[in-house]
């Protein structure tokens, strides 16, 4: 079974497309954990309507604690052998989890990763494009095929639950993925890349990261980038020079 964790905050307009892409997956053995993180719009009504039709859906309501807290709550209650994350304004191909799961099982990999297509209102662009399947256990290669640090995205992958169950996301951070993903990749035994399926990332100008830059957010970005540099140095990895130049 795969547990899919979806943090939700005030996204009623995009939410249906996200949930539709989950309930209609060709892989049926899903646990769909929808975490309403204190939404004040009609997101809760949307969730309840889907939960009435699909017993695989679990709704968790909590006060607004942030993305990391919602994901951590999902990890804590997840029952699946593998865990995936989907943001509530994004969606996935219908074969997404079947392909990831089969490749993870067949190669005995802790992580399986897909391509990412970034969707804007009119245009679209591949952020990650896998044209063939690759398997590696070498840390430098694992970081390279995941496109770290340019693409520190957690949601185009599934992770063995045993790998991440004790690794929580840092709370009250804007760039929690950047802090979390490199350490998870390091802990993993193998990563397999899966071509032909995509995670569709909606470029949302109203997202937490895209909104007006505040001093707090800028400082958070600085320390996240600094942590990546330290990770590469501590593990004797090669990092492109352009990522070594950061400003505070």
Q: Helix and strand layout, with pairings?
A:
Layout: E1 2-8, H1 12-23, E2 30-37, H2 43-53, E3 57-62, H3 67-77, E4 82-85, E5 91-92, H4 96-107, E6 111-119, E7 124-128, E8 135-136, H5 139-145, E9 157-160, H6 161-164, H7 176-187, E10 191-202, H8 215-234
Parallel strand pairs: 1-2, 1-4, 2-3, 6-10
Antiparallel strand pairs: 4-9, 5-10, 6-7, 6-9, 8-10
How many helical stretches?
Answer: 8
Structural class: alpha/beta
- This entry's quaternary arrangement is single chain
How can the largest sheet be summarized? 10 strands, mixed
Beta fraction of the residues?
Answer: 15-25%
What's the pLDDT, averaged over the residues? 94
Give me the Rg, rounded.
17 Å
Q: Which descriptor suits the 3D outline?
A: globular
Q: Spans with pLDDT under 50 lasting ≥5 residues?
A: none
Helix content: 25-40%
> Count the strands?
10
